[in-house]
Design a protein that fits this description.
- This protein has six helices and twelve strands.
- It is an alpha+beta fold.
- The strands form three sheets. The chain has a six-stranded mixed beta sheet. A four-stranded mixed beta sheet has the order 7-8-9-10.
- The chain starts with a strand and ends in a 6-residue tail after the last strand.
- The relative contact order is 0.14.
- The N terminus is likely disordered.
């Protein structure tokens, strides 16, 4: 990401329930404030398109000492050289919060030959009570209908889980799925907002490593995780 550009004069605090990978949609006034900042021509063109179409930003990790602005990001599509724009917006400029698309929304972006396997994978996740969403290139292309996906794009899944056992079940589904499409990547999202890459979780629970990287709204931490009982 490029350095944060602060926009607006904050008069409200960041909402307590904010979390990473949440989407925010700005008000017309909010976009006007964003566009007043001294962006270069390419960034301004991209942000102008976002403002015109009312497209979302994504909540990113929040600086420890920034309680009055929401740190957000915009990974630009191919036409803007896939630049990563970062900015900070005043809470009063957020019209509402949103989410990345449900995983079945990206079916149309996959080759037809993968449709059945993708639907089977989503059914297997649903069977363990995991309503997956898709972020990354596939998620942004589904949201914006702009070109993000390329030959090496992963399928980044946001996987809400309730506890350790639920995370194990979800990781097991992904690890054993008969899938020959884009690499399945993404995060297990726990109720406290902590997120762990599902592959790291699997490796730790299988005893290959003893620690995982946990990402939270205001930082990251290396945490020890016990292997799953045999």
């Amino acid at each position: 990401m490029e350095p944060l550009a602060s926009v607006g004069s904050p008069t409200a605090r960041v909402p307590e329930l904010l979390r990473r990978q949440q989407l925010i949609r700005l008000s017309v006034a909010g976009w006007a404030t964003v566009l007043e900042a001294p962006w270069d021509a390419t960034a301004r063109s991209c942000l102008g398109l976002w403002a015109t179409r009312g497209l979302p930003l994504v909540v990113t990790r929040q600086p420890a000492r920034q309680d009055a602005l929401v740190a957000a990001g915009l990974p630009a599509p191919a036409r803007y050289r896939r630049r990563r724009l970062a900015l900070a917006v005043a809470p009063q400029d957020v019209l509402f919060f949103d989410e990345f698309p449900a995983a079945d929304t990206v079916t149309r972006l996959l080759p037809r030959a993968l449709t059945a396997a993708w639907r089977n994978l989503l059914a297997a996740l649903a069977a363990v009570d995991c309503a997956a969403r898709v972020y990354g290139g596939y998620g942004w292309q589904a949201l914006t209908r702009l070109a993000y996906v390329h030959a090496d794009s992963d399928m980044d899944l946001l996987l809400p889980v309730t506890d350790v056992q639920h995370a194990d079940a979800v990781a097991r589904v992904l690890a054993t799925a008969p899938w020959e499409g884009p690499r399945l990547d993404g995060e297990l999202l726990f109720p406290d907002g902590g997120a762990v890459a599902w592959r790291e979780w699997r490796d730790c629970r299988q005893g290959r490593v003893s620690q995982v990287l946990v990402k939270r709204l205001r930082g990251v931490a290396i945490e020890t995780l016990a292997a799953s009982p045999a």
